[in-house]
Design brief:
ABC transporter permease, MetI-like fold, plasmid, cell membrane, membrane
């Protein structure tokens, strides 16, 4: 009787651990995401309900974060305003990606006069400070939130175009692009089936950063009256309305300011975590 030799065990594959910054970013953003989706149901009071008899009440059991000059609950307004502020940042970033990625792909792939014309147009847009360019776009029409989203999206198109073009130029030197050309594939196939799938990791990191800048720019436009309009509970508008009462009732500005700071820090940490997670140097075997 012969002894059976046990088969060697297959080596265990180790999944890359999640970066701490990614986990912390998700933890910070999770409550904001819930508030953005269900803020209207979670708010203890209607965000626009006025009660002059309760105006400028300090934080307490009835009003957790106090009331504003019209007796509106600050906590309820901040909860409902989460959706408005985050949607502005995400929608503006999506708009900049939808416009900037195709332009960057074309500029990097075609080059020549077409690429030069696209990049010179982007240089013109980048010559304006973001807040000034946003004001110029909004100055010709009545202020509204959707117009602010379009303006912010236009502001950040050049950065997306430049990043996409730079990555496309690098990928054009790769062998799989040469092979696709030798097979006789057309430009559209190479751009959207060969190049685009390989540029999404840096674009994902760039998108997270753009969301931060878009939220801050949206809050700035609302702060100066060019974005969301009353009685909206947008964070920037709430902070603007709290200016005359900063010494008397600082809680009116502190609550939306804290929410804005949490969103910015959380998205920044999320972007840092994505960068570390998607870095090819961190995907090797442990």
């Amino acid at each position: 009787m012969t002894d059976a030799t046990p088969a060697p065990l297959a080596p265990r594959r180790h999944l890359p651990s999640l970066p701490v910054s990614l986990i912390v970013g998700i933890v910070l953003l999770a409550p904001l995401a819930v508030a953005a989706v269900a803020g209207s149901w979670l708010a203890p009071y209607p965000y626009d309900e006025m009660n002059i008899m309760s105006r400028l009440q300090p934080p307490g059991p009835e009003f957790w974060f106090g009331t504003d000059e019209f007796g509106r609950d600050v906590f309820s307004r901040t909860l409902v305003g989460t959706g408005s502020s985050l949607v502005m940042g995400v929608a503006a970033t999506a708009l900049s990606l939808l416009a900037g990625v195709p332009l960057g792909l074309i500029a990097g792939y075609k080059g020549g006069r077409i690429g030069e014309a696209i990049m010179r147009a982007m240089d013109v847009l980048m010559s304006f400070p973001p807040i000034l360019l946003g004001i110029l776009v909004l100055a010709v029409t009545q202020p509204a939130q959707w117009k602010a989203i379009v303006a912010i999206g236009i502001v950040y198109v050049p950065q997306v175009v430049r990043l996409t073009r730079a990555i496309t130029l690098e990928l054009m030197q790769e062998e799989f692009i040469t092979a696709a050309r030798l097979r006789g594939e057309n430009a559209a196939y190479i751009l959207f089936h060969e190049i685009l799938p390989n540029i999404w990791p840096p674009l994902a990191v760039e998108a997270s950063l753009r969301v931060v800048f878009a939220i801050l720019l949206g809050a700035s436009l609302s702060f100066i009256g060019m974005g969301a309009q009353p009685p909206s509970s947008d964070w920037g508008l709430m902070i603007s309305e709290a200016r005359p009462f900063v010494e008397q009732a600082p809680w009116i500005a502190l609550c939306p300011g804290f929410a804005l700071a949490t969103a910015v820090i959380g998205i920044n940490l999320l972007g840092d975590g994505l960068r570390a997670l998607l870095d090819p140097r961190n995907t090797g075997a442990h």
